[in-house]
Design a protein that fits this description.
single chain, 355 residues, mainly alpha, 15 helices, globular
Length: 355
Amino acid sequence: MNTVIMWLMAFGAVLGGLDRILGNRFGLGKRFEEGFELLGATALSMAGIICLVPLLTLLLEKTVVHFWNFLGLDPAMLGGIIAIDMGGFQLAGELAADPKAASYAGLLVAATLGCTVTFTIPVGMGMVPEEDRPLFARGILAGLMMLPVSLFIGGLLTGLTPLNTIRQSLPVFLACFVLAFGISRWPEQLVRGFLHFANAIRFLSTLGLILGAFIYMTDVRAPFPMTPLSEAMKTVSSIGIVMLGSLPMAELLQRLLKVPLTWLGQKTGMNSASMTGLLLGSVSVVPAIALIREMDRRGKIVNAAFLVCAASALAAHLGFTFGVQKEMVVPLLAVKFLGGLLGGAAAYGMTGKTK
């Protein structure tokens, strides 16, 4: 299955590249270019954190890891609170006692819970119009409540036993419940906390870039462990290569599904912007959030719930997983789309049908 997906991405890169040569006649060449242009933004968000992962690992080993071991939990789960492409995978790998737990936490948990906490919530609450924020928060709540189900399936697909999956995931499941409860009771205060957390991650990433660039250009030895910036950029480049094909393929998929999605929108009582947002969200979070102002009430809640798991499934997260651990591509896509569908279904059930 991994090979099939990789060939599809490669086919998308060929189509996008050829269309670019032909002058972007079919709109795929533009998507091909966007895949490459996203390298800068991707590197800015994650390369610095990757540089600092050895230092963060050392700090956690001296503090929280001892308590985690005392509880009988794998410290890899600590990496899952950071997005997959912001250093969560590397941190989980450095802390892990079990390689399977590293894959589970660093890829599946980090691509869902980590992405939601460090990116989707702070970015979404900043972009969504004030009057739509309660609806957005309600959708996030629905997505978080269904996240444990998809993560449990993901743990099994990773190779963890059912009992071990539940045991290792207990802090994650508890975090989902606490976040959902907090969003339902104190949405504004909780969002401010997420914004501060996201700013802290951004600060660390920039600091890592500064140190990495300085060391690369001067050959000065750092007084603490660091990943060279050149190695961090290799990970970023692998994501960009896959996005050369994934974005054109996502564009093709959107066109192929336009008619059935329109029909589905009529059946579910959601407008075209709401249905388009579901497809956009599986490629990139920001365009989907930007479209929320044009969605109907039900669509706003359903799209927010869908993003908790399915955000960037066909672009950045797929590309990252191909670059670091190809065998985890199928579990990643299964968790992201199963969780997205479950979250969307839960949100659908929470809302009344709109005219």
